[in-house]
Amino acid sequence: MSERRLISSGSRFEAEIGYSRAVVQGDWVFVSGTTGFDYAAMTIVGDVAGQCDQALRNIAAALAEAGTAMADVVRVNYYLPNADDFPACWPILRQWLGEIRPAATMLVSGLADPRMKIEIEVTALKR
After folding, report:
1. Distance CA 25, CA 4 (A)
2. Percent of the chain whose predicted confidence (pLDDT) is above 90
3. CB-CB neighbours of 15 under 10 Å
4. I need a surface site. Which of 7, 24, 34, 114 has the fewest CB within 10 A?
5. Structure pTM?
6. Average pLDDT, rounded, for the chain
7. pLDDT at position 2, please?
8. What is the pLDDT of residues 27-75, one digit of tens each?
9. In this model, does residue 124 exceed pLDDT 90?
10. What CATH class has 4-125?
11. What is the pLDDT of residue 67?
12. How far lies 67's CA from each of 23, 28, 31, 106, 124, in Å?
């Protein structure tokens, strides 16, 4: 049985709610829904494209700590309160994931904080 390892971003939300930014189980890395908060400053920009880019930076940091990278992402889920915001994210998503082209789903759903415009979760398989 492989050892389970928990990855934290340092976000207060992880301790308050009771979850990890990512969980490593064997060769798999499961990254929780990640928003555009800059966790070091606990700030968030107002536009969806900026939040999308920051969320992907947060995800890349979690993956790096887990010993993997964005190139290992096999699945991505996007959650947005407003479907009309999604096209503004496409150039950023293409920049981060265009070569990787993971399986993807976009869902419209409410998010925990009204400032949040996108939440992204990924699954990666270490090569």
Report:
1. 5
2. 86
3. 10
4. 114
5. 0.94
6. 95
7. 74
8. 999 999 999 999 888 899 999 999 999 999 999 999 999 999 999 999 9
9. yes
10. alpha beta
11. 96
12. 12, 11, 13, 27, 11
Residue 25: both structure tokens together: 């189980």
Among residues 126, 123, 117, the alpha carbon closest in space to that of 104 is found at 123
Collapsing DSSP to helix, strand or coil, 47 comes out as coil
Q: Which residues contact 104 (CB under 8 A, 6 or more apart)?
A: 75, 76, 77, 78
- Whose CA is closest to 51, among 103, 111, 124? 111
What does the block give as tokens for 107? Answer: 């869902």
pLDDT at 82 over 70: yes
Report pLDDT for 92. 98
| Cα 114 to Cα 117: distance, rounded to the nearest angstrom | 8
> Which of 97, 124, 103 minimizes the C-alpha distance to 21?
124
Which residue, 72, 52, 55, is CA-closest to 63? 72
- Report CA-CA distances (Å) from 48 to 30, 68, 91, 100: 23, 26, 12, 22
